[in-house]
Design brief:
With 129 residues, the chain is mostly helical. It has one domain (3-125): Four Helix Bundle (Hemerythrin (Met), subunit A) (Up-down Bundle). Helix content is 76%, strand content 0%. Helix 1 (3-24) runs antiparallel to helix 5 (102-125) and helix 2 packs parallel to helix 5 (102-125).
Length: 129
């Protein structure tokens, strides 16, 4: 595993911690946003095993689907988690206050934890890491 990958995984873990704190403090929109970033950083980290990186969020999401879901390495629900989190992040960051509910945010934290776990498992099995 490269230093860049370690840093991205650390950022993912920090983002989950921040998401939990924001959720506990009554900020579900910002919590959902941090949950998305946890998944995004984890996806970036694992994509580096394929020697690919992108500057656009949509490209990272698409590449994760192409390299890990379509190949059967990751169940399709994880790509859905990432795409739905991206949409919810937009609502949390730019939508009306209250557009992201407590339930939405709780679900996103749970999904982010699962997403990070599957990425860490993939990276442990990868000869590139």
């Amino acid at each position: 595993m490269t230093d860049e990958q370690r840093d991205l995984l650390a950022q993912a873990k920090d983002s989950i911690g921040a998401a939990k704190l924001l959720l506990e403090s009554g900020y579900p929109g910002f919590s959902a946003s941090r949950s998305y970033y946890a998944m995004f950083y984890a996806a970036e980290a694992v994509l580096l095993d394929r020697s690919v990186s992108f500057s656009k969020h949509s490209a990272v999401i698409a590449a994760f689907g192409m390299h890990y879901v379509k190949t059967g390495l990751v169940p399709s629900e994880y790509h859905r988690f990432l795409t739905e989190a991206f949409s919810l992040r937009h609502s949390g960051d730019y939508g009306q206050r209250g557009s992201v509910t407590l339930g939405h945010a709780q679900e996103q934290v749970s999904r982010a934890e699962r997403f990070l776990k599957i990425v860490e498992d993939l990276m442990e099995q990868s000869p590139a890491s």
